[in-house]
């Protein structure tokens, strides 16, 4: 009787109602990218994550890693490097920052690691205005331009499916440090809370449009661009 009842229920309720994909991103950005690959069966792509933060928490790449993808994780905080090496063994995990030239920069560390970054102005403002968050310390971190990191670590001939950037005030600098003639990810996710009705006020939006990309989606904190040359 129970077996018969179960078969009846499954007959009239779509089986996909019982399953869902877990998002690891802060605002569901990974599910936006996932939707672009829904019709590509067993596809294993490649990502580059600048400001990767954590192998799971607020991660735009964890879902794809669990689906067999791999890529490069770039995170300046030395505390989480061991976690990336353990939980992301297929990935290339780098404990460096991204800037416009090879140098060492001051990295501001907060009691909420998601706020860590290289921007002195933004970090000091957060330290003075947020009751819950405060600056713990500063450390010196080696940085390289994104183009140099890709020159060294991107496998030869490997195309980048998506680049995700969360650099806490350094996002435009990260974009400017790439060589867009040689390295053109199909999709680019970059943090910018600009209003959709005021896109021209965003330096990041204007830069990406000039680089040949078009805005195709947006969350509260993130803009998603697609390479107009690969459409």
Q: Could you characterize what this model shows?
A:
The protein is α/β, with parallel strands linked by helices and 231 residues long. The chain has eight helices and ten strands. The chain has helices spanning 2-12, 29-36, 62-66, 81-87, 120-129, 146-153, 171-176, 203-210; strands at 46-50, 70-74, 92-94, 97-98, 103-110, 135-144, 162-165, 187-191, 213-218, 222-227. It has a seven-stranded mixed β-sheet with strand order 3-2-1-7-8-10-9, sandwiched between helices. It has a three-stranded mixed β-sheet with strand order 4-6-5. It is globular and about 45 Å long. The chain starts with a helix and ends with a strand. 34% of the residues are buried. Mean pLDDT is 89; it is low at 5-19.
Short description:
This is Methyltransferase FkbM domain-containing protein. The protein is of the alpha/beta class and 231 residues long.
Feature tags:
231 residues, alpha/beta, 7-stranded mixed beta sheet, 3-stranded mixed beta sheet, 8 helices
What's the arrangement of secondary structure elements?
Elements: H1 2-12, H2 29-36, E1 46-50, H3 62-66, E2 70-74, H4 81-87, E3 92-94, E4 97-98, E5 103-110, H5 120-129, E6 135-144, H6 146-153, E7 162-165, H7 171-176, E8 187-191, H8 203-210, E9 213-218, E10 222-227
Parallel strand pairs: 1-2, 1-7, 2-3, 4-6, 7-8
Antiparallel strand pairs: 5-6, 8-10, 9-10
């Amino acid at each position: 009787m129970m077996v018969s009842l179960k078969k009846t229920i499954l007959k009239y309720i779509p089986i996909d109602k019982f399953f869902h994909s877990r998002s690891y991103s802060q605002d569901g950005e990974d599910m936006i990218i996932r939707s672009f690959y829904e019709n590509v069966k067993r596809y294993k792509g490649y990502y580059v994550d600048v400001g990767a933060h954590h192998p799971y928490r607020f991660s735009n790449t964890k879902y794809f890693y669990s689906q067999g993808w791999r890529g490069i994780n770039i995170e300046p905080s030395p505390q989480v490097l061991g976690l990336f090496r353990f939980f992301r063994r297929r990935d290339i995990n780098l404990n460096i920052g991204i800037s416009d030239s090879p140098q060492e920069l001051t990295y501001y560390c907060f009691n909420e690691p998601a706020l860590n970054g290289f921007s002195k102005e933004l970090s000091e403002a957060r330290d003075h205005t947020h009751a819950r968050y405060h600056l713990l310390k500063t450390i010196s971190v080696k940085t390289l331009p994104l183009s140099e990191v890709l020159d060294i670590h991107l496998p030869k001939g490997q195309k980048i499916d998506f680049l995700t950037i969360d650099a806490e005030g350094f996002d435009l600098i990260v974009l400017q440090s790439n060589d867009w003639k040689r390295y053109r990810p199909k999709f680019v996710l970059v943090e910018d809370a600009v209003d959709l009705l005021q896109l021209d006020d965003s330096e990041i939006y204007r830069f990406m449009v000039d680089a040949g990309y078009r805005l195709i989606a947006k969350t509260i904190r993130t803009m998603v661009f697609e390479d107009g040359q690969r459409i």
